[in-house]
Amino acid sequence: xxxxxxxxxxxxxxxxxxxxxxxxxxxxxxxxxxxxxxxxxxxxxxxxxxxxxxxxxxxxxxxxxxxxxxxxxxxxxxxxxxxxxxxxxxxxxxxxxxxxxxxxxxxxxxxxxxxxxxxxxxxxxxxxxxxxxxxxxxxxxxxxxxxxxxxx
Length: 152
What we know:
This protein is mostly beta strands. It has helices at about 100, 105-115, and strands spanning about 1-5, 10-20, 20-25, 30, 35, 40, 55-60, 70-80, 90-95, 115-120, 125-135, 140-150. The protein has one domain: Mutm (Fpg) Protein, Chain: A, domain 2 (Sandwich), CATH 2.60.270. It is built from two helices and twelve strands, in the order E-E-E-E-E-E-E-E-E-H-H-E-E-E. The protein has a five-stranded mixed β-sheet with strand order 5-1-12-11-10, with no helix packed on it. Strands 4-2-7-8-9 form a five-stranded antiparallel β-sheet, with helices on one face. Strands 3-6 form a two-stranded antiparallel ribbon. Strand 10 (about 115-120) and strand 11 (about 125-135) form a beta hairpin.
């Protein structure tokens, strides 16, 4: 994840639908800096019909005194293998509190409608986000995301 603006953003929420973080997301991403995380997917349990893969989300927010406050969402889905589905990524931006009001179920619905790329610009705040997920086989994917704000 890249924070392309000069403002620091702070991790405010994470969510796991499937799998879990094995390396937690960066607590802060400095101005014009990068952040990372590792999310390991849930695996199949023999013959049991378990939905498997990595599906989660992170939300970052500004907490400085600059106006407006901003919030950035990155959500992804990487099935354990391609026969289960396609990799998906979803981004959205807005004012702080937007994603709490939206709820994880709506975010998951939006993710499920998305593809391997996603971009969003919030007209009210100028906050932008873009992301891509690249599938590297049965158990690996790379998600890249950029968070920014366009003024004017």
